[in-house]
Amino acid sequence: MQQLLWAILLFVFSQNSVAFDPLDPFGNITIKWDVISWTPDGYVALVTMNNFQMYRHIMTPGWTLGWNWAKKEVIWSMVGAQTTEQGDCSKFKGGNVPHCCKRDPVVVDLLPGVPYNQQIANCCKGGVVSSYGQDPSAAVSAFQVSVGLAGTSNKTVKLPKNFTLLAPGPGYTCGPATIVPSTVYWTKDRRRKTQALMTWNVTCTYSQFLVSKHPSCCVSFSSFYNETITPCPSCSCGCHNKDKCIKSGSKRATSVGVNTPRKDNEPLLQCTHHMCPIRVHWHVKQNYKDYWRVKLAVTNFNYRLNYTQWTLVAQHPNLNNVTQVFSFDYKPLVPYQSINDTAMFYGMKFYNDLLMEAGPFGNVQSEVLLQKDKNTFTFKQGWAFPRKVYFNGDECMLPPPEAYPSLPNDAKIEAITISAIVASVIWLIHLFIW
Which residues form the signal peptide (predicted)? Predict the structure, then answer.
């Protein structure tokens, strides 16, 4: 009986922990419905999608939101978004035909540049939503919907159910709509506040396992004190695309169009032993008396996708002493108040926030200067390499610990550094003499 109880508890825990991210424990997308007015046969609601995930954003072609009506509701009109289908509205006669009559409408954001009378605040970005850690002001999307054949009061309205969110592919699981205290609004002069007539929330959480059973990125290592480069493990991201990959430098590779994704988002990868769209390389570059330097490089092996507003997250005990980051933006992440070992890196706007598709420009790189904590700092046993690495919110495959670059036998790192400096000086003297 006791074994059965433990088995049940383990099953429940595993099911609930699928969507739990230890580096972003409170990350989710919350969809809030605010009823702002009643109509003769329903209501007008402002629907706001807030991305509270620190480093996972919604890329182009953007989000798709769906639900099922509880009764026989219809959508009379929308501002800032549209449904993908109108459905069968044949029972409505005359010129007053609803925008959508489907029992399970599917909504998408409008593209930028639509007329002003079709816009509201935070709409019309093609469904692209920033991560909260990068830009909180852009981590929101909204639209307005006029619902008919629905309840006309708090007691008669039936909440929609079975919410689904694609962003743009699978990965999100949405809970049921829950009535919460009504949202409060302030006027621009902050002298008066009003509130929604009724508010309900829907919370959606992300699970990488729902997207694919294989990772979408991998990590390789190298260091100045060891000539060995530790590559990504073979088939890190699965080898199911091995027969469709393109060899680097081939005529087909040079003829692939720029940013030409397919509707099914299937990648077209450069042939590698790891078969990943993204590779992150962590190189221990230099060692100083009080500091050490790491070089980060991200390479795109996907010929069909540019990564916009990309994010790179690393967990390492010395990331609590970041001194300077070159050519990337940086933000410390503190998922737990007592632990500060996680950092988010992302591109500088209009400089390297776009990671181009596979090819000569398909990489971004930076260097990080870290101050040593002499009580914990060491190069032994792979300490200089990260514990976890995420790209665009998905955890990357790391090499096995036994493959990490190791210190030469009986060598001290200070001696190695001095030897490297002496060799560089001798080389420079030789260069000037000759």
Answer: 1-19
Q: Residue 32: which H helix or E strand, with range?
A: strand 29-39
Find, among 404, 219, 375, the residue nearest to 312 by Cα: 219
CA atoms of 412 and 423, how far apart (whole Å): 17
d(CA 72, CA 100): 12
SS3 call for 189: coil
Residue spans per domain, the chain: 19-210, 214-424
Domain 19-210 = CATH 3.30.2130.30? no
pTM greater than the 0.70 cutoff: yes
pLDDT tens digits for range 366-379: 999 999 988 889 99
d(Cα 265, Cα 169) in Å, to the nearest integer? 8
1: burial class by Cβ within 10 Å (0-12, 13-18, 19+)? exposed
130 vs 29, 178, 333, CA distance in Å? 11, 25, 16
Tokens of 391: 């790209």
Q: Which pair of structure tokens corresponds to residue 46?
A: 């402002």
10 Å Cβ neighbour count for 366? 20
Give the three-class secondary structure for 342: strand
For 214-424, the fitting CATH number among 1.25.40.10, 2.60.40.10, 2.60.40.290, 2.40.40.10 is 2.60.40.290
- DSSP H helices, 53-104, are none
